[in-house]
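We modelled the chain as a single entity of 415 amino acids. Its sequence is:
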Amino acid sequence: MQMNKSVIGRENGLAQVASVAVNVLAAFIQSVAMGMCAIIFPVFLEHNRISSSLIGMILAMDTIAAFVGALCLSACLKYFGMKSSLIVSVALSAMAIMGLSSVSGVMHWSLLVFANGFGSFMFIMLLQAWVSSLDLKKRKALMLALYSTVISVGMALGPVIVNAIEQSGFVARNLGQLVQASGLPLIFNQEMLTTRLGFYVASLVSGMSLVPIILGVFLVPNLQVKSQANIWNVISRAKGPMFALAMGAVSVYGVTSFITLYGNKNGLSVSDSALLLTFFLTGTLVLETPLAWISDYFDRRFVIVFACFATMVCAVYLPIAIYVNKIAWLLLFFWGGFTGCIYSTSMALISDRFQGDELLAANSGYSIMESAGGTVGILMIGFFMDLAGTDGLPYVIMFASILYFSFALTRYEVR
């Protein structure tokens, strides 16, 4: 009997490992597309002579979509199931990216950015609900950090791919010749491929995130939502980590949306500006896991407060460091690590507190607070970059850090 239990336990363990592998691979591929879009969208809009404040409003549709998606997460799982929701979300994201390359006008751009944001973030949230349903035992912060690190790797790889496309004109030339030889010169020509190849590649990569899901479809859980816990009640019961997520989102979305433009406006080339984002995301993937691992052995709230303070310091020194590439890259590296630590440690605090349907509501609450912080951050950064110049980016992030740092010192209660 003990042998049978051992065999069953081993089989369950292998199935769990395979489930995590499929989940992580899908999240990685989708995050590559998201990283590409973080560069392609703002640069494309700036080339169309859109002001920074209007770019901020358009890009804010991405985080607004995530907010709406968080509210719809439980309903999607309840009425459509995990598998159908995953497929539809990826299809929506891929088609929206493709559509952005072919339309003009603020309204069309805003709608398609919203559609892409809803699809991509819904896909990631569904994957997070999937991995949260698995019994990961101990080391919660470490496991969540490793999962987040995979997403950061994909996000960091996205700008590298965009930079390679930008530097490798022969790709577009050869692809243009191939398309013309196929008899479709009126639909796709060399000029179109040269200017829009990034959109096509990002759309293809987004669609490819369904490949591991299809191959491991038997591993996709059929999550049952028995009762929908009150999201706002869950948020109010975990103010500390929830507000930390909002503050971290101001930094993450602010940097990912505007650091490329910030570099351009301060004299950096497009490739060097893209590397600013790459180093930010690389810092997340390298430093987030060890910092989150430390929080498994110390009071997590102290780790969060330290990370928030360090984020504020990085924002303070950005206007000085931006003129020396190596210093700017090093600053963005540490900045990304401290911001990632805020995310994973806050998520560990939340998962410590809630179980079952409340944990699903907490995941939705996490996404809502992240989206709210990201939306406010993007709008304020775009506005202040037009009002006060490029340093509106670090000013807004400094202000958000100070607000949370003050809150943490006076009212932060986590058990």
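As a brief sanity check on the tokenised model: The mean pLDDT is 78. Residues 22-217+229-411 form a domain with the Growth Hormone; Chain: A; fold (CATH 1.20.1250.20).
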